[in-house]
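hiii so um. not sure if this is the right channel but i have a protein structure encoded as tokens and i wanna go backwards to a sequence. like what aa goes where. can anyone help
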């Protein structure tokens, strides 16, 4: 387990991404993969009220509903660190105080719990004053409905401003950041955010940790494209640098005798402040390719090999 920043939360170093529940995994499939994750020692699950409104026939809230049913069926809420988000569901957009209060109540109901361990602003809302947003989050923390708050998709200047507002007003602070960060998407996080989160000791929980599936190794030059809802996005990384990354991942995975996606996740875990990359799986078989990352830290030489392969050329 790993401590989540300066919070009192102890989390498994691979956070399970619940965007698949009610989308690419139905209720029974979701229960099966959640059971496998918990059996392996996993305790950290990430979802959002917006999941999965983007799937045909869905309205939103499906992921939280399925997760809530599983928690009740297994009676294990006290062993799970539960993260969800507000602000990007078209039914409840933005980070106004009224919306945050209403969305939190809706999420608590769907999840069947009296508190959320980590509650995210799903993305920045520049139309609402940070004082209003953070004040609403602070109310939830003081009421015991939320333990800690976090930010997703914030720029460095806005995250710094939000932290300053919390410090000035005595509000709860963002304790974690969920950025888009992986071996083939490094620049935005490393150039803009890494220094800030290090100074502020904020936990980092990267999403798209496997680059929409590209870093699983399933997508290869000249190969058949796997059938997947994310195939188009993953295939976009089949450029020269992406192929170099796959080559380096293959080398390390072969020497370590662990799956390629676990090496990609272990690289993230080797980065300062990264506590638990977020990764999804539709079934226990896919999950088995992710979990070895938790127990196989990379050496300095392996980190350097992957850093070199994934560096953006100067120019």
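sure thing!! here u go:
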């Amino acid at each position: 387990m790993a401590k989540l920043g300066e919070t009192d939360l102890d989390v498994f170093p691979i956070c399970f991404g619940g965007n698949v529940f009610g989308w690419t995994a139905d209720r029974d499939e979701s229960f099966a993969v959640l059971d496998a994750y918990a059996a392996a020692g996993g305790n950290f699950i990430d979802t959002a009220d917006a999941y999965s409104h983007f799937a045909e026939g869905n309205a939103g809230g499906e992921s939280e509903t399925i997760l809530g049913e599983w928690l009740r069926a297994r009676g294990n809420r006290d062993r799970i660190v539960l993260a969800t988000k507000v602000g990007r569901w078209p039914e409840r957009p933005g980070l106004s105080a009224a919306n945050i209060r209403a969305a939190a109540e809706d999420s608590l109901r769907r999840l069947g719990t009296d508190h959320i361990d980590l509650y995210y602003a799903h993305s920045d809302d520049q139309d609402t004053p940070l004082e209003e947003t953070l004040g609403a989050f602070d109310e939830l923390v003081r009421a015991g409905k939320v333990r800690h708050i976090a930010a997703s998709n914030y720029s460095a200047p806005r995250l710094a401003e939000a932290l300053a507002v919390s410090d000035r007003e005595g509000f709860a602070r963002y304790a974690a950041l969920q950025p888009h960060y992986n071996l083939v998407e490094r620049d935005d996080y490393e150039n803009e955010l890494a220094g800030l989160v290090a100074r502020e000791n904020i936990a980092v929980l990267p999403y798209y940790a496997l680059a929409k599936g590209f870093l699983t190794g399933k997508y290869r030059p000249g190969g058949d494209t796997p059938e997947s809802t994310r195939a188009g996005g993953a295939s976009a990384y089949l450029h020269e640098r992406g192929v170099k990354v796959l080559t380096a991942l293959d080398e390390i995975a072969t020497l370590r005798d662990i799956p390629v996606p676990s090496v990609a996740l272990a690289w993230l875990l080797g980065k300062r402040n990264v506590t638990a990359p977020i990764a999804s799986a539709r079934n226990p078989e896919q999950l088995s390719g992710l979990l070895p990352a938790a127990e196989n830290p990379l050496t300095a030489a392996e980190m350097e090999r992957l850093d070199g392969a994934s560096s953006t050329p100067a120019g």
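oh and The domain at 2-216+259-297 is CATH 3.20.20.100 (TIM Barrel).
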